[in-house]
Design brief:
It comes from Xiphorhynchus elegans (elegant woodcreeper). It holds the Pfam family Myotub-related. This protein is α+β, with helices and mostly antiparallel strands and 717 residues long. Among the domains are: 22-144, PH-domain like; 176-473 and 486-503, no CATH class. Helices cover 35% and strands 11% of the residues. It has 24 helices and 14 strands. It has an eight-stranded antiparallel sheet. Strand 1 (22-32) and strand 2 (41-49) form a beta hairpin. It is globular, with a radius of gyration of 27 Å. Residues 520-528, 536-572, 653-660 and 686-717 have low confidence and may be disordered.
């Protein structure tokens, strides 16, 4: 039985951006609502443009249902072509991956997205000609290799009026002055200098126009091997120790070349190991961290846990949640990366040693570790503008290959690896462990991860500053439409209005660097669904949660068995590291000082907002950290209004000085995955043929238990 809305009477046309062209469309397409196992859904029009795939139904035309957190560029039913992960066709109830030319056209289309949305379209009621056009159009424009100049980025840049607010505080690091200011800010200008050797890209097209090296390094040395073997400065610690990175020489070389390169490196090391420079510790990340291939394999397995298109699949995987989560190895990779960052921080902070990170290109894991170390050690990098400047410095100007690693041009899956996502996952661990230390929220990180796939901004769509510069001038594209004015993702007003942007800012950010001596470690927010792998027996809860029944026996089975590797692993930190780690964690947290993440087994969690936001079954209506936040914001607003009244009473009203805090209204109806989750979506748990659910009582009791768990009227402490 199919529950349907009647086909739409009025014509609904897609909202097109400047430079966006409608390529193909199909009417009477039926979009399943996917979350409840029934065939409920809505009729509409499916369109494909040179920017996105979009589903338009009669709700698309009305503004009555405007969400509080709305993206102005990519709507709820829009998928940018770069955000499409895989497309499956359903033929006689069998799923088949769609690529290239199609001989037969499917009756159903399933689109899996890189932001983990799943769209399910039924084409049974669509005209055959339209089915052919829309399916082949979508597959062609989203799955086949394309040239850089065919990216929507260029169409938009040449057609859009350049009237955005350029006054954001992000340092772009595209001028010599920016680098000199950063040297001065970190007091690194005594031993390091910004160089202009690469002007005109005469050293290398992979290196930025300007960068920083030790003062003792000569211009001849930089030119000799196209910048390889040269220690490039990333950041200086308050004690003078510096974090450096270096692009290694290729391993397979003939003997004479290899000897020359070795002699060159020895000379460089001797020069930067003697006073005034600190002792130097070298760390070859290609041998001490997982390979890019391992990272890609782990993430591919991990994301499958969340690309769920029906309730039955969700509840089936839920029973095996721990073993499935562990088998992906994704959380273990995050743990290893965080551990490496702590090791580097220890060398800089406690041992006063310079650390030189070495990698073949110094543009992948070097970017991850150097960024993490700066977030942990430099409170400026925990502000919004500071974090954005850090991404510009280490990733955008630093030459991370976004086109290959995100596979934006669909050239080769062999080069694909979620390196930038790995950084955001690691930063999220710190954000959720120490919320007051960050000026931005997890929503900011989630939106930033989504922006990876929006080719309206140039930030994540080039491999190097050289490629960006030549593309902007139109030189490399042999086009008459240059020069282009590309947008930067850091101008959030392009995607969100001011009300929505409020969700990116943390109202609990501890601005004053005065740590409260009485305050112990920060409050740990509890998750209903276990989002980390257990290590020790958790304290018994006084309240019974939704997943309590199933996790109890799973924890008992797992303890001391598979998860034992977190305690007795072969890569356990040496004593000095462990001493540094435990010594720091035994003291009160200074939110403006060094921050060390907790990395033992269960402390590494799944980034719930990003990975579970489209799965209604994983939401807690009226619960989660957002409900607590909403309550506190309500109190802050109340205190502010009382303050205003008191000021008025004393005839000291100050106009314009009271900053109102945007509060999500009606907090009782919020979901734990707000602002992404849709409140109206409901899901019914199907009966599962497993013993796990036999003990659960009827639905009424289940609802009572849920309400009991998320009741916030009690003690907030």
């Amino acid at each position: 039985e199919i529950h349907i809305k009647e086909p739409i009477e009025k014509e609904v046309n897609p909202h097109l951006l400047p430079g966006e062209l409608l390529l193909c469309e199909a009417s009477t397409v039926y979009k399943y609502m996917q979350e409840d196992g029934s065939n409920r859904g809505t009729y509409g029009k499916l369109v494909c443009t040179n920017f996105k795939i979009s589903f338009l139904d009669d709700d698309s035309a009305s503004d009555d249902n405007e969400p509080e957190f709305k993206n102005k560029i990519v709507g709820e039913n829009d998928i940018t072509l770069q955000c499409v992960d895989q497309i499956y066709g359903v033929y006689d109830e069998k799923k088949k991956l769609l690529t290239g030319q199609l001989r037969k056209y499917p009756e159903r289309l399933i689109i899996y997205c890189k932001d983990l949305r799943v769209f399910n379209f039924c084409l049974r009621y669509t005209k055959e000609e339209e089915v052919k056009r829309i399916v082949s159009g979508i597959v062609h424009h989203s799955q086949t290799p394309k040239l850089l100049k065919r990216l929507f980025l260029f169409s938009y840049a040449s057609a859009a009026p350049n009237n955005t607010d350029g006054r954001n505080q992000t340092v772009m690091f595209d001028t010599l002055e920016d680098w000199r200011d950063e040297l001065e800010r970190t007091k690194g200008n005594v031993k390091y200098k910004a160089v202009t050797t690469n002007e005109g890209y005469r050293v290398s097209e992979k290196l930025p126009l300007y960068f920083v090296v030790p003062i003792c390094i000569s211009e001849e040395s930089i030119l000799k091997y196209e910048g390889r073997g040269i220690p490039i400065w990333c950041w200086s610690c308050h004690n003078g120790a510096a974090l450096l990175k270096m692009s290694a020489f290729p391993k397979e070389q003939d003997d004479s070349t290899s000897q020359m390169q070795k002699a060159f490196l020895d000379g460089i090391y001797k020069t930067i190991s003697k006073p005034p420079y600190e002792l130097l510790k070298m760390d070859d990340l290609s041998s001490s961290l997982p390979s890019l291939q391992d990272i890609q394999t782990a993430y591919t397995r991990f994301k499958q846990l969340f690309l769920i298109d029906n309730s039955t699949d969700f509840w089936a995987t839920d029973v095996k949640w721990f073993s499935l989560l562990e088998s992906t190895n994704w959380l273990e990779i995050i743990r290893r990366v965080l551990k490496k960052a702590i090791e580097v921080a220890e060398c800089l902070e406690r041992q006063h040693t310079n650390v030189l990170l070495i990698e073949e290109s110094a543009t992948d894991l070097c970017c991850v570790i150097s960024s993490l170390v700066q977030v942990m050690m430099d409170s400026y990098s925990r502000t919004k503008s500071g974090f954005q400047s850090l991404i510009q410095k280490e990733w955008v100007i630093g030459g991370h290959g976004f086109l290959e690693r995100c596979n934006h041009l669909r050239k080769s899956e062999k080069e694909e690896a979620p390196v930038f996502l790995l950084l955001l996952n690691c930063v999220w661990q710190l954000v959720q462990q120490y919320p007051p230390a960050f000026e931005f929220t997890e929503t900011y990180l989630t939106v930033l991860s989504d922006s990876l796939y929006v080719p309206v901004f140039s930030t994540f769509f080039f491999n190097s500053q050289h490629q960006r510069d030549t593309s902007a001038s139109g030189e490399s594209l042999k086009t008459q439409s240059g020069p282009f004015r590309f947008l930067t993702v850091w101008d959030w007003s392009v995607q969100f209005d001011s009300k929505a942007q409020a969700f990116l800012n943390n109202p609990f950010y501890a601005e004053k660097p005065k740590p409260d001596k009485n305050q112990r470690k920060t409050t740990r927010f509890k998750h209903q669904r276990q989002l980390s792998l257990p290590l020790t027996q958790p304290k018994p809860s006084t309240k019974r949660g939704f997943f309590r029944e199933e996790t109890d026996h799973l924890i008992k089975n797992i303890l001391g068995k598979r998860i034992g590797k977190f305690i007795n692993s072969s890569d356990e930190p040496p004593n000095s590291f462990r001493e540094f780690y435990e010594s720091w964690h035994s003291k009160p947290v200074d939110y403006h000082g060094l921050l060390l993440p907790r990395i033992d087994g269960p402390e590494i969690k799944v980034w719930a907002q990003r990975y579970l936001r489209w799965i209604p079954e994983a939401q807690l209506h009226g619960g989660g950290t957002i409900a607590i936040t909403a309550k506190i914001l309500d109190l802050m607003e109340e205190v502010q209004s009382l303050q205003v009244k008191m000021d008025e009473e004393h005839s000291q009203a100050v106009s314009g000085d009271v900053h109102s805090v945007t509060t999500p209204r009606n907090s009782a109806r919020l979901s734990s995955l707000f602002p992404f989750a849709l409140l109206q979506r409901q899901s019914v748990k199907p009966a599962l043929p497993t013993s796990t659910w036999k003990d659960l009582e009827d639905e009424d009791d289940l609802v009572k238990r849920d309400d009991e768990f998320v009741d916030l009227s009690g003690d907030m402490s």
